[in-house]
Amino acid sequence: MFRTFLTLFSIRASTTTNMLIYYIQKLPIIGKLIKGNLYSQLDVKKAISIIAIIITQLFGFALRFLYVGLLLFLPVIGLGEGLSDEDRLKQFVHIFAMISFVAASVSTATILEPKREKYVAVKLMRMSPTRYMQATFGYRYLTFFVYLVPAMLIFGTLAGASFLEALLLAALITLWRIAAEYGHLKLFEKTGIVLIKQTAIVWVVIFAGYVAAYVPILLNIVPPTEMILLSLPAIIVITAGGLFAAIKLVRYTGYREVVDAATKRDDPLLDLGRMMTETNKKSVESKDSDYTTDNKQKINLENKEGFAYLNAIFFHRHRSLISSPVNKRLAIIGAVGVVGVMLMLLFKNKMQQWHWDLEAIFPFLFLIMYFLSVGETICKAMFYNCDLSLMRYSFYRSAAYEHFKIRLGKIIGMNLLIAATVGVAITAIHAAAGGEWLSQQLLMLWLCVILLSIFVSIHHMFMYYIFQPYSTELNVKNPLYYAVNMLVSAASGVMIFSSVQAVPLTIVFVALTIIYLVAALVLVRKFGAKTFRVK
Asked: Euclidean distance between the first and final Cα of the chain, in Å?
């Protein structure tokens, strides 16, 4: 197995090194110094591979620090003002249990993960599926524990845990996740179901897990999760279950079927990317009915020419694809609004005791509008159904700035509709809780929602035109795209735990939206012709 592990490590190091060279070549100034023949210079690549390995390991530690710090520790410190040290630890452990033990155990499973490395190693290199999975499991959960320990020791002790309790939490989650892997395997063996591919179930569990994690601290409820999880019976059960699962996974003999299910490839000459391509393309394909136009569906193309004419036809011919994500979001917002109003009417007196304040919603607005935005979905649809073909022509690439403005206006319009629905839902909930129908806070909330819908529209369109992250298989391969999106997501998360008041927060949103709009227009006009291309 050690030889298998070295082979896998070499594959990962080689892949990371090649990606590192490729993206360094894309950097301004420095990239011009990196020649294409560097891929064939083995001595230089060995040195780069060492750097790549170090970066990968440091990234593993950094990711755990971000996870424990931002999702576990920061909410306890930011939302748990006035809590005793004992209650602070209980909240920390509860959030950790709901996210890591519940949500992540359902949404993540190495054993059935569709991964290119798995296809290359087993299908192309003819590696034994059993040896491959054993080596993968060993590396996965050894590094899982090692990466997590420093973050848990630092943030766990700051939250009130002892050194032993922080170490124990890291060990328990590792053993629990191994047991969860075995659960995924047995479910597949008995039913043929790959749970992590059941998108609806996975997202329902994730949503429920995060709600269960943060609602108690928002409502000043201290759950007994810490007492249960760190009790002797729970420790014995989780330890025994994890060790039992580890032994079963090592001795399992049916990994051939498991790998086939994960890769869905019997012919070693076929590429796993095709499977991912088919899945991605299904999400952006139009209906045949979109190409039939009756009298009610006719569009006015008069006074339209050039790219305005082209985009008008595109949005009409793909109307179901464009309107579907908007309609789904409107339905979800409406349902949440109705449920919220009913709950407020039922528990109106209780909400008044808790001193319900509209200002408590402001820190969540960024995150809400970011995830409700249809910008990324529409960009994928535009790429697959329009831009993938037209990007091959220089006249289309050189006019990136022109169709950027047209599309930005269209996406802003759709997101403004979503923003208006969010505003109506929050207004109705606020009024049901006994609040005023018209107040300064409510007006600022409406202004923030509108500004953020414009901001996220600009963000998604800017990212699409400047980074153009999609390959011909609709996979996202641009690390800068991931990095910027991660920063924006992190900023929206940090904002939840900030204590910024509504007025300065509104001023910040106004400034950010104006600055981003101006920067996007300037940068797309200057660089769009070079960056907006097929990859």
From this structure: 38
Amino acid, res. 528? G
User: Considering only CA atoms, which of 156, 143, 138, 146 is closest in space to residue 229?
Assistant: 156
Phi/psi class of residue 126: alpha, beta or left (left: φ > 0; alpha: ψ in -120 to 50)?
A: left
Report residue 470: phi and psi, to 5°: -90, 135
Report DSSP letters for 259-297, one per residue.
HHHHH---STTS-HHHHHHHHHHHTTPPPGGGG---GGG
- 411 in Cβ contact with 460 (< 8 Å): yes
Please indicate, yes or no, whether the overall pTM of this predicted structure exceeds 0.70. Answer: no
CA dihedral sign of residues 23, 29, 33, 35: positive
Q: In the chain, which stretches have pLDDT less than 70?
A: 1-2, 5, 26-29, 31, 114-116, 124, 261-300, 302, 347-357, 472-479, 493, 497-499, 535
Distance CA 47, CA 94 (A): 44
DSSP-assigned beta bridge partners for residue 470: 476
**Cα-based distances in Å from 66 to 209, 337, 416, 526:** 19, 32, 32, 35
Please say whether the beta carbons of 408 and 454 come within 8 A: no
For 354, phi then psi, to 5°, come to -80, 0
Distance (Å, rounded) from C-alpha 326 to C-alpha 417? 8
State which amino acid sits at residue 463.
M
What does the pLDDT read at residue 357? 67
Cβ pair 378, 323 in contact under 8 A: no
Q: Which residue has 């169709």 as its token pair?
A: 403
Greatest extent of the chain over all pairs of C-alpha atoms, in Å? 76
pLDDT at 499: 65
Residue from 167, 174, 146 nearest 58 by CA: 146
Residue 467 burial by Cβ neighbours in a 10 Å radius (0-12, 13-18, 19+)? buried
List, in order, residues 6 or more apart from 76 with CB less than 8 Å away: 83, 88, 91, 92, 95, 159, 217
pLDDT of residue 350: 59
Which pair of tokens denotes residue 327? 């309609």
The confidence score (pLDDT) of residue 498 equals 67
Domains in the chain: boundaries:
2-266, 305-531
* C-alpha–C-alpha distance, residues 256 and 122, integer Å: 9
- Residues 509 and 497: their CA atoms lie apart, in Å, by 17
Q: How far is 249 from 175, CA to CA, in rounded Å?
A: 13
Q: Whose CA is closest to 329, among 282, 375, 360, 298? A: 375
